[in-house]
Amino acid sequence: MTGILYFSSTGNSLFIAQKVQKEFGGEVKYIPNYLGNGSEYDKIFIVTPIYSYGAPTFICELFEKLDSSKEIIVIQNYGGMIGGADYLLLKYAKEAGLNIKAIYTMKMPENYTLNFSVPKFYLNSTLKKADKRIDKIISRIKSKDLPLPKKCKTREKKYLKNKANWHIIGERFSANEKCIKCKKCIEICPVNNISMQDGKIRFSDKCVACLGCYHRCPKKAIVYLNKNKKSRYINPKIDENLIGKDF
Q1: What confidence tens digit (pLDDT) does each residue in 56-87 have?
Q2: Which residues, in sequence order, are CB contacts of 10 under 8 Å at separation 6+?
Q3: What Rg value do the Cα atoms of the chain yield, rounded?
Q4: The whole model's pTM is what?
Q5: DSSP string covering 28-71, please?
Q6: 3-state class (DSSP) for residue 105
Q7: Is the dihedral of CA 56, 59, 63, 64 positive or negative?
Q8: Which residues fall within 8 angstroms of residue 217, CB to CB, at 6 or more apart?
Q9: What is the distance between the alpha carbons of residues 10 and 235, in angstroms, rounded to a whole number?
Q10: How far apart are the C-alpha atoms of 121 and 136, rounded to whole Å?
């Protein structure tokens, strides 16, 4: 059986994982909740966003436990620049002794929008091309066109510095007067960084910069540095209720 392991906070990776499942079958597993090591699968797909020219914390943790005998295909998606993140991921995978057969990258809408807003025309244009982009990758997989990134200059130092400071983002979040105390942010946080204390939403120091709480708050009540920005993003091609689920 094929295993499709994904991490998604606003639906971009989930969209890709669903497409992969439709073509190759198997089961989809949400990485933060996945306790296995991949040994139950014949082949593994890993679907992940690119964070700060590297990989989310959950991908690094997954690499440490995966069965090294299994063939793995990775599909990374990015909103800004790749910045050598594909080669850096390959480097970390090799250090973990993993059998990476291919790494694909594809552009998806940017969701790291704490300090800026993505123009709607650019967002819509990127979404419009998403189906063709993943279909092209699936076609390459089927035809055994399995690329691995060539050695290149990465931004590893910047990535590691940013990763070490991701916890600060959580400390800069707060919930304003629009909060209806629905506790959705608490439920969807993959690292249990959010809690209800004295009737108010509180953020701790374990944030991994996924921004799921920020984008998916139904009242847009979660703000960053007290800036009341209106723009939020959830991939419209997926059912939001499936984000973080296995199927």
Answers
A1: 999 999 999 999 999 999 999 999 999 999 99
A2: 111, 211, 212, 215, 216, 233, 234, 235, 243
A3: 18
A4: 0.96
A5: EEEGGG----STT-SEEEEEEE-BTTB--HHHHHHHTTS-TTSE
A6: strand
A7: positive
A8: 175, 179, 184, 185, 232
A9: 6
A10: 23
Mean pLDDT of 143-152: 97
pLDDT digits (tens, 9 = 90+) for 87-126: 999 999 999 999 999 999 999 999 999 988 889 999 999 9
Q: Residue 235's CB: how many other CB atoms inside 10 A? A: 22
What CA–CA distance (Å, rounded) separates 77 from 92?
18
Question: Contact 109/233 with Cβ under 8 angstroms?
Answer: yes
CA-to-CA separations, 159 to 50, 73, 136, 170, 197, in angstroms, rounded: 10, 22, 29, 18, 33
Average pLDDT for 188-214: 97
> Looking at residue 154, what DSSP letter applies?
-
Planar angle of CA 219, 184, 234, nearest 5 degrees:
65
Reported as a single tens digit per residue, the pLDDT across 149-179 is 999 999 999 999 999 999 999 999 999 999 9
Measuring CA to CA, which residue among 24, 15, 73, 75 is closest to residue 44?
A: 73
